[in-house]
Design brief:
heterodimer; A: mainly alpha; ABC transporter involved in vitamin B12 uptake, BtuC; globular; B: alpha/beta; Rossmann fold; five-stranded parallel sheet; 12 helices; disordered N terminus
Chain lengths: ~325, ~280
C-alpha cells in the first residue's frame, strides 16, 4: 500500500510538471519553470502563472474529485458501473451551472455558479439513489442513469438554445464533454473550497463502505448508521462533482476507469480504493489534458472525448462481465 | 476511371452553361430585386436604382450586424425563406455563397434567377463585388463611380508605417489570419496581423498563450453580445486583462468589418486613427 501511494504521488507530480511545460506558446521547459517560480519580465511569467498553472492545478483537482466520487459511489452502491458521468450526476451539475450562468445569477454573485452546480449534482445523486435503491442491480442503476443524463442534457440544451447569445448554443459541447482550455486562477479558487470539503467528507466514508461490503444488515449490526453514510455520500459527491463541472464541464468515465484500474493493486476494500482514486484520478485527467494538447494542439479537443475513448470500451467490458451475474 | 467523364470536366461544362445563362439573361435591367444576404443587401442598397430593390434581409436592419441599419428602414424586410421570396415576385434574387443551399435550389427550381456572391476575402474582392453587383443590377455607371471613390479613399488611407502589430481576438479565442477581409482591413491600416504571423490562414482559434507571447500593440475584439456565454468569458481571462493593461490598446469591431462593401474603409480609417494614437 505504501509503495503504491508513493508511485502514484510521483506519477501525479511528474504529470503536473509535464502539464506545465506543454503548450502552444513554445516556451522551453527550463525557461518556463524558471518564469513560473522566479517571475521576471516579458510575457513568459504571465503565460506560466495565469494560463498554465491554473490548468495544471485544475487537472489535479478535477481528476481527484472525479476519481474519489466514482470510488465512493461504487463502494456505496457496491457496483463497479457507478460513475458520476454515467449515472447523470455530472449532467445534472452541468444543468445547474448553465442555469446559473444564463439566468445571470453567476454574474451577480461569484459563488452562485459552483453552488448551483452543487445543487444540480446533489439532485442527481438523490434521484439515482431513489431510483436505483440501496440494493438496486446494475440494470436499474444504469437505466436510471441514462434517464437522468438524458433529461439533464436536454434541459441544458434547451437553456442554451433559448439564450439570446449566439455563442451559447455552441457551448453545449463544452458542458457535455468538458475542457480545461483557458481556465484561470479564478476558477481554481472557485472550485477549491467545495472540493476540499467534499473530499474530506468522502474520505471519512472508508470504514463505513468497508462494512457495507458485508451487506447492509451486517453493517448496521456493526454499528454503521446507514442514513448518515448516505447523507455524507450525497453531499460529498455533490460538492466535488458540482465544483468540477462548474469550472470544466462534464468529464466522463474518470470515476469508472480509475477505481477499476486500481482495484487489483490495492485489493477490493473500498477504504483503500478511496484514497488511491484521488491520486489515480488526478493522474488520469492530467494525462488526458496533456494528450489533448499534444494530439490536436490547435483544435481545443474536448477532454471528455479522450476520457470517453479510454473509458467507454472499459465500460462495455464491465457490462459484459456483470451480465452473467445479472441473469 | 476509363470510360468515365472526369468530374472537373463536368464542372467546367456546368460553369460554361451557367455563365452563358447569366449573360443571356442579363441584357435587360432587373426591375424587382430581392436580396437575402446581409452583404448583398448592403451592396444593392448602395447601387440599385430607386424602386429597383424591393426587399432586403432582416439582418440588414440589425445594428449589430449591418453597417446600413438606418438605410435599411426604408425597405421591406424578408427572412430568406423560399416561399416568402417567391411571393415578392422578384426577377432577380441576390444571395451569398453560403446562403441556405436548399432555399437557393428551390428558388432556382421555380424559375427565379439567383445570383450568388462569394464571401469577400480581401479589399480587392470588395472592389470586384461592387463591380459585379453593378453589372447584375445593370448600374455600371453607379458602380464605376463607387469604385473610383473607393480607390481614392483607400489610397489616401494607406501608409508606409508598418511598425505596429494588431490581433483580432473574438470569443472562444477565434481570430482571423491570412486570406480574410479582416486581415485586409488590418494591413490596409498599416498594421501587422499577429494571427497571420502565427501562420493562421482563414479563421481559426489562436491559443491565449500564443497571443500573450506575441504581445500585439492593438487588440481588437467583437462587441459583447446580449446574454451570458462562456465563449465570451475568455475575454475577461486575467492573462488577457494583464495584456490589455500592460501593452495592448483595445478596440472593438463594428459591422463595417463583416461585409466586402465600401464600409470596410470606415473600419480602416478607425484603425489608422488608433495606430497613430500608438506613437
Amino acid at each position: 500500500m505504501r509503495p503504491l501511494a508513493l508511485t502514484l504521488s510521483a506519477l501525479v507530480a511528474v504529470l503536473f510538471v509535464v502539464s506545465l511545460t506543454v503548450g502552444p506558446a513554445g516556451i522551453g521547459a527550463r525557461d518556463g519553470l524558471a518564469a513560473l517560480i522566479l517571475g521576471g519580465d516579458g510575457p513568459e511569467p504571465l503565460v506560466m502563472r495565469e494560463i498554465r498553472l491554473p490548468r495544471a492545478l485544475l487537472g489535479v483537482m478535477i481528476g481527484a474529485s472525479l476519481g474519489l466520487s466514482g470510488a465512493a459511489l461504487q463502494g456505496y452502491l457496491r457496483n463497479p458501473l457507478a460513475e458520476p458521468g454515467l449515472i447523470g450526476v455530472s449532467g445534472s451539475a452541468a444543468l445547474g451551472a448553465v442555469l446559473a450562468i444564463h439566468t445571470g445569477l453567476a454574474a451577480a454573485t461569484t459563488l452562485a455558479l459552483p453552488m448551483a452546480a452543487l445543487a444540480g449534482a446533489g439532485t442527481g445523486v438523490l434521484l439515482i439513489l431513489m431510483l436505483a435503491g440501496p440494493r438496486g442491480g446494475s440494470i436499474t442503476l444504469i437505466l436510471a442513469g441514462i434517464a437522468i443524463s438524458a433529461l439533464a442534457a436536454s434541459l441544458t440544451s434547451l437553456v442554451l438554445n433559448l439564450s439570446p447569445n449566439p455563442y451559447a448554443a455552441s457551448e453545449i459541447v463544452f458542458w457535455m464533454m468538458g475542457s480545461l482550455a483557458d481556465r484561470s486562477m479564478t476558477h481554481v479558487w472557485l472550485a477549491l473550497p467545495l472540493m476540499l470539503a467534499g473530499g474530506a467528507a468522502l474520505l471519512t466514508l472508508g470504514r463505513g463502505l468497508d462494512a457495507l461490503t458485508l451487506g447492509e444488515d451486517a453493517a448496521e449490526a456493526m454499528g454503521l448508521r446507514l442514513a448518515r453514510v448516505r447523507l455524507t455520500l450525497v453531499l460529498g459527491t455533490a460538492a466535488m462533482v458540482g465544483a468540477a463541472v462548474a469550472v470544466a464541464g462534464a468529464i466522463g468515465f474518470v470515476g469508472l476507469v480509475v477505481p477499476h484500474l486500481l482495484r487489483p493493486l490495492v485489493g477490493a476494500r473500498p477504504s483503500r480504493i478511496l484514497w488511491a482514486s484521488v491520486l489515480g484520478g488526478a493522474a488520469m485527467v492530467l494525462a488526458a489534458d496533456i494528450a489533448v494538447r499534444l494530439v490536436l494542439p490547435e483544435r481545443d479537443l474536448k477532454l471528455g472525448v479522450l476520457t470517453a475513448i479510454v473509458g467507454a470500451p472499459l465500460f462495455l467490458h464491465l457490462i459484459y462481465k456483470t451480465r452473467g451475474a445479472q441473469a | 476511371m476509363r470510360g468515365c467523364v472526369r468530374p472537373s470536366r463536368l464542372i467546367a461544362l456546368g460553369l460554361a452553361f451557367a455563365l452563358a445563362g447569366v449573360t443571356a439573361r442579363a441584357d435587360t435591367a432587373p426591375a424587382r430585386v430581392v436580396s437575402i444576404n446581409l452583404c448583398t443587401d448592403q451592396l444593392a442598397m448602395m447601387l440599385a436604382a430607386p424602386e429597383q430593390l424591393v426587399s432586403i434581409s432582416d439582418l440588414a436592419a440589425d445594428p449589430h450586424s449591418s453597417a446600413m441599419a438606418q438605410e435599411a428602414r426604408g425597405y421591406r424586410i424578408n427572412h430568406g425563406g423560399a416561399e416568402e421570396v417567391y411571393l415578392l415576385d422578384p426577377d432577380l434574387v441576390l444571395a451569398g455563397a453560403y446562403s441556405d443551399p436548399a432555399t437557393v435550389a428551390m428558388l432556382r427550381r421555380v424559375g427565379l434567377r439567383v445570383v450568388q456572391f462569394d464571401t469577400a476575402r480581401s479589399l480587392a474582392d470588395t472592389r470586384d463585388h461592387i463591380a459585379r453587383m453593378a453589372e447584375v443590377l445593370d448600374r455600371e455607371e453607379a458602380g464605376a463611380a463607387l469604385i473610383s471613390r473607393f480607390d481614392a479613399r483607400l489610397d489616401a488611407l494607406r501608409s508606409a508605417d508598418t511598425r505596429h502589430s494588431a490581433a483580432l481576438y473574438h470569443p472562444n479565442g477565434y481570430s482571423l489570419g491570412a486570406g480574410t477581409l479582416s486581415d485586409g482591413i488590418l494591413r490596409a491600416a498599416g498594421l501587422m496581423n499577429v494571427a497571420r504571423s502565427l501562420g493562421l490562414r482563414g479563421g481559426g482559434t489562436v491559443a491565449l498563450e500564443r497571443l500573450v507571447m506575441a504581445a500585439p500593440d492593438l487588440l481588437i475584439r467583437a462587441a459583447p453580445l446580449p446574454g451570458a456565454s462562456r465563449s465570451e468569458a475568455v475575454m475577461s481571462h486575467p492573462a488577457l486583462t494583464a495584456l490589455i493593461t500592460e501593452t495592448a490598446n483595445m478596440r472593438i469591431t463594428s459591422p463595417d468589418w463583416i461585409c466586402g462593401t465600401p464600409h470596410v474603409l470606415d473600419a480602416v480609417e478607425t484603425l489608422v486613427t488608433a495606430r497613430e494614437g500608438l506613437e
